[in-house]
Amino acid sequence: VSTQSTGSFKLFSTLHINTFIEQAMSSKIIRRVISTAKAPAAIGPYSQAVLVNHTLYVSGQLGMDASTMNFVSDSVVDQAKKALENMGHILEAAGTSFDNVVKTTVLLKSIEDFGRVNEVYATFFKEPYPARAAYECANLPKYGLVEIEAVAIVGEVDG
Q: Which of these, 140, 131, 135, 82, lies nearest to 113 by C-alpha position?
């Protein structure tokens, strides 16, 4: 295998890359849909979460009550808290927790709510915090005020 160092990056030979691709293609990928009645059912053609090998992709969670499918209130703080509680139920159903979340995306009806949502968010996550992006959106499903999605690792994480 020949590599060439360019700063902090290494360029690998085509042979090495082709070998890696062949090995990846020959191993079986496990894909499983994760669902729990403790979180709101999907309101469209998607799953609450999908587990691929050890990576869990959690669909965007709104601040809705699972039994009524209504928002818990008109408060962005209440909706953010409920969205994260719903996410916690999905993480638990997959056998993981907030500790193993590596990336989130926060969608806000108004970016002016960023600080309030951040305060709620900080009560669910601890250091080392997951990577995150936050965006203001023109509209969210069912006219929610906040939606949060995540990527997590299922299994023991070292470090």
A: 135
pLDDT of residue 110: 98
Dihedral (CA of 129, 91, 67, 137) sign:
positive
The residue among 131, 125, 81, 129 whose CA lies nearest residue 104 is 131
Residue 81 near residue 60, CB atoms below 8 Å: no
d(CA 40, CA 62): 8
The pTM for the full model equals 0.84
- Burial class of 159 by CB neighbour count within 10 A (0 to 12, 13 to 18, 19+): exposed
Strand partners, 5: 10
* Pair type for strands 9-12 and 3-6: antiparallel
